[in-house]
Amino acid sequence: MKCALLVAWREYAENAKTRGFWLGLLLFPLILFLSIQVPVLLEQRATPVRYFVLVDPSRGLAPAIEAALEKSFQRQMLAALKEYARKNEVPMTTAPGEGAGPAGRRPAPSLADLNEGDALSLETFVAKGGKGFFLAQLGPRLRPGAPPFQEPRRLFQQVKLPSTINPKAEVASIAEDLKPYLRQDKLVEADGSPVQLAAAILVPPDYESQIVRPQSRSPAAGPRPSASAGQIQFWSANASDPRLREEVERAVNTEIRRREYLARGMDAGVIEQVEHTYVPLASLNPKKEKGREAMGTADTIRQWAPSAFVYLLWVAIFSVMQMLLGNMIEEKSNRIVEVLLSSVTPGELMMGKLIGIAAIGLTMVGVWLAAAFGILIWKSGGPSEITGQVFLVLRTSNLVPMFALYFFLGYLMYAAFILSVGSVCNTLKEAQSYMAVMMLLMMVPLMTMTFIPKDPNGPLARVLSWVPLYTPFIMMNRATADPPLVDVAGTLVLLLATTIAALYMAGRVFRIGILRTGQPPKVVEMLRWALRR
Amino acid sequence: MRPENEAADGEALRLRNVTKLFGQFKAVEDVSFSLGAGSICGFLGPNGAGKTTTIRMVLEILRPTSGDITVLGRPSALEVRHRLGYLPEEKGLYKKMKTWAIIAYFATLKGMTRKAAKRRAFELLERYGLKDFAEKPTDALSKGMGQKVQILASIAHDPELVILDEPFSGLDPVNQGVMEDLIRELAERNRTVLFSTHVMEHAERLCERILLIARGRLIFNGSMAEAKRTVPRRVRLETEDDIAPLRDLAEVSAARPLPRAKGQAHGGDQGVLQWELELRENSDPQVILQTCFNRRIRLKSFNQSDPTLHDVYMRLVGPEAKEAAFR
After folding, report:
1. Which residue, A36, A43, A343, A403, has most beta carbons within 10 Å?
2. Helix (H, G, I), strand (E, B) or coil at B278
3. Is the pLDDT of residue B267 over 50?
4. B81 and A CB contact within 8 Å
């Protein structure tokens, strides 16, 4: 055993010195960091402002469209303010909303009470004075040294029609004149500098003739002309970013419907009230304790966390397999193995390798987990909401011990395969054909990874759980879905038995293969070595 | 703790009727020999004769199909593996490991403490002129240096029985000399050395005993002097005259002309021939010289030398080796 530990220590120390190990160690947190940070940065910095012209000589719809776009901008503003507050506010000692107004009056809402996804919240936000009011409210509670608030950029910015184009002309003629601008052959002017025109919204004076009503579907019948007279036109050369078009369409139709209500004699105030009327839907989980069935963030995390662990498990097992194979091939091709075998038994050598490489894998996974937590804490500005929830989930579920167990067993099972292959191959090239098979087999859990949580105890999940090759991944994936006991215990026993058998067989192949030179044997021959008495 | 029985019979290694089969192929057949403690023994034989297989069985890397092996008085090399040193035929080192670390690693596998192993590694590297490379990874070493490091790694723990498979291959003449000294020094300290080689000169200079193996069978096991006695002594002479009187001598068992060397066919030496006479055992070459003088055979040259180990080898395994080479 002492020799096995010596071998293990060397494996660990030498692998920990390799560039591949450090690359693997740092690459994962880096990718995680970038995958969180890059979209944010892109959203903040790289998303271009879409400049558009709005031609509506009758001013029939322009106010509605402008108001809708402004509302959308205020929503962005509210979200940005909330994010700013979350990062820079000193944690409150009073309940949200308390102490902001004098006694007796209804307290002024605070940012924490507002939700950018909720129409009423947004209206309150705007009505209270928007950014100015809430920044002032936030002021005293900001931590010292907090950076100034940066207003988000407007995603859609209206510009004036180029002066060469007559705004009074026919819509068709304006469209024709705008084409060079929309094709970016010519630039329009915004705040004194030339910019590219992304879109043009043309509202003809007789657009109302095109309204489709359930009782008279005439304009929609038959194939649509490219731009029939009277139709509202949205011109843009960019088909990949539909956001402006969707905003405009929504605004226009909301306005049209509002007018319809009015035309049918309904009261404007009533309409508004009706529009803001809703009933919330509670998401409940029957598996949870009575009185606490409501689903929260933690439940969502609980459902999806196993997938993250499956991915981690896969990457960890895959990386250590690569290390183990590279290392075996080195010893084999360098003939170091023969000197080793004069000092240690093949069993000790194999055990040492298994332990050393497992330790490397655990170090890697440990660093990854620590880095992931670090990034989460950093991103949420202190140990707050999401991180707290993640910790809660990890503490209250058996995810971490299960991960450790399945990593250990899965690693040993796959390592048995690698040790057999590594012991008979002299070069990586020779090992490739065997590895290709393993790679293919290992792809399955990766493909089912996102599907399993949706139906964690369904037939696919249950069947795959009983395939020992996939047990670690699939059972990990089902970890928080309370799979039947027979699945948990049964697959574990089967996995354990398979791992022991695989290691036993690998030990036999290893003993024979390790001193072999020349062409690697056929799989059938290896099986014969493994099973021969 | 050293086993008493080793000291008692003074034997470092004994093989008794050892046979190894790979399927139907007999790699080693009925080999028996023993090595006295403190001796240097050369293990010779053509490629594929079974040397490496025998060595692997001694080290218990392979198990014999039949027969038994006693290593340092024990029936299993595993029991005494810390007292064995081994340098395999095909040499290799971990490329990224530091030179001292690799020597120390193998020494710790042989039971030395980390600290002692490190000290010993530096000591050996210094003594054998590799001090400057101690902190370098082994892939910075030349082939010869790498091999030297490996030899040092195999003796770092001061083993009692050292088995070296082709220790000289890849070394320059100076380092071959260093290696010979190292082997002699081991023997002086009562360590037993068994080494295989294809270069007979090394064996001739170092060994008291040789083992010759061919086609898996031990065909010679004895002292150097005994080995040389298996080859008849030879006399080479050069003359224009008829050598019939020499052929008739009782001492001469055979006489054959030697092919002319290039360039000798021209010039004034037309008719001069080189002969090689094979003498019977215990014959005195002086008789030949005397006969030439008496029978007026004019000699251009006369050369009498003892057989070399090369002659012994060629005589004993030459045909086998050729056959093996074309197999």
Report:
1. A343
2. strand
3. no
4. yes
Q: How many cross-chain Cβ pairs, A to B, lie less than 8 Å apart?
A: 57
Contact A334 B93 (CB under 8 A): yes
What is the tens place of the pLDDT at every residue in B217-232? Answer: 998 898 888 888 888 8
A108 has a pLDDT exceeding 50: yes
ipTM of this predicted structure: 0.77
* Strand ordering across the sheet containing B25-36: B25-36, B11-22, B66-71
Q: What region does A501 belong to: left with phi over 0, alpha with psi -120 to 50, or beta?
A: alpha
Using 50, 70 and 90 to split pLDDT, how confident is the model at B2? very low
Q: Tell me how far apart the alpha carbons of residues B327 and B324 are, in angstroms, rounded to a whole number.
A: 5
Contacts of A339 in chain B (CB under 8 A): 86-88, 106, 150, 153-154
Partners of A213 in the beta sheet?
A: A216
DSSP A456: T
B302 membership: H or E segment, kind and range? strand B299-305
Residue type, position A38, single letter: V
What tens digit of pLDDT does each residue of A204-248 get?
A: 888 877 788 877 655 544 445 455 667 888 888 877 778 888 888
Q: Is B98 on the interface with A (CB under 8 A)?
A: no
Of B81, B93, B109, the CB nearest to A6: B109
The Cβ of residue B34 has, within 10 Å, a number of other Cβ atoms equal to 16
Helix, strand or coil, per DSSP, at residue B35: strand
Give strand pairing partners of B15.
B33, B69
Closest-CA distance, B211 to chain A, in angstroms, reads 22
Min Cα separation A358/chain B (Å) = 20
Please list every residue in chain A whose beta carbon sits closer than 8 Å to the beta carbon of residue B81. Answer: 342-343
Residues A334, B92 contacting (CB under 8 angstroms):
yes
Please give the structure tokens belonging to residue A219. 């304009």
Which tokens is B308 given?
A: 């070399």
A54 touches A66 (CB < 8 A) = yes
Distance (Å) of CA A470 to CA A316, A362, A433, A464: 15, 20, 21, 6
**Between residues A60 and B270, which one has the greater pLDDT?**
A60
**Minimum mean pLDDT range among A103-112, A134-143, A289-298:** A103-112
Which residues of chain B does A343 touch, with a Cβ-Cβ cutoff of 8 Å? Answer: 81, 106, 109-110
Tokens 């084409």 sit on residue: A179
Contacts of B84 in chain A (CB under 8 A): 342
- Distance, CA of A434 to chain centre: 34
With CB atoms and an 8 Å threshold, state whether B106 touches A345. Answer: no
**Tens digit of pLDDT for each residue in B147-193?**
889 899 999 999 999 999 888 888 888 888 888 999 999 999 999 99
Residue A386's pLDDT band (cuts 50, 70, 90): low
